[in-house]
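WARN no homologs supplied; continuing
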Amino acid sequence: MAGDAQKTRQRLLEAAAAEFSEKGIAGARVDRIAAAAGCNKALIYSYFGSKEQLFDAVFEAHVAEVARETPIDAADLPAYAGRLFDGFQARPQVLRLATWYELEHGPTVAIPEPVARSNQHKAAAIAKAQKEGLVSKHFSADEVLALVLALSKTWAFPLSYCATATPPSPAELRRRRRAVVEAVRLLVTPVREEKA
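OK structure emitted
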């Protein structure tokens, strides 16, 4: 019985991720989520409480998945940015969910606890690498993290950065990835004066 409930909950999370990434919180409909999951919409309220709480559960699950699949390596931030780039290209749904979260909650909302914990861990790792002379101190650890994340998201939303509407070829994706990795390398490599 518990196994069935867990499977149903997982189906609801997967269906909700697809619905929310396409429609946002306001545009998503619980009846469509329930139909896609093959269950009664009353289960959404039973398991999650509300549509907004379901969105939060979906968002937090995706953040945890990205953190688990792409752990930070502060000693090699260019490679970390490359892996993030790959993940965002493979799962554009993650960035769409994050964008909807920011749009619908506004700029003054508190960052969800799992996101805050993940970012604190990453910033601490970067600060440690800065103390060890592995990462430039030109920017604070928080700033480095924000810039690395922003660069890794480049080209995730093609309308923002591309001159053509056609999907990129594999060769173009490799070129873009190299550009992200090189940009992060230039950003974080300590200059000689810092090393001295």
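The mean pLDDT is 88.
OK
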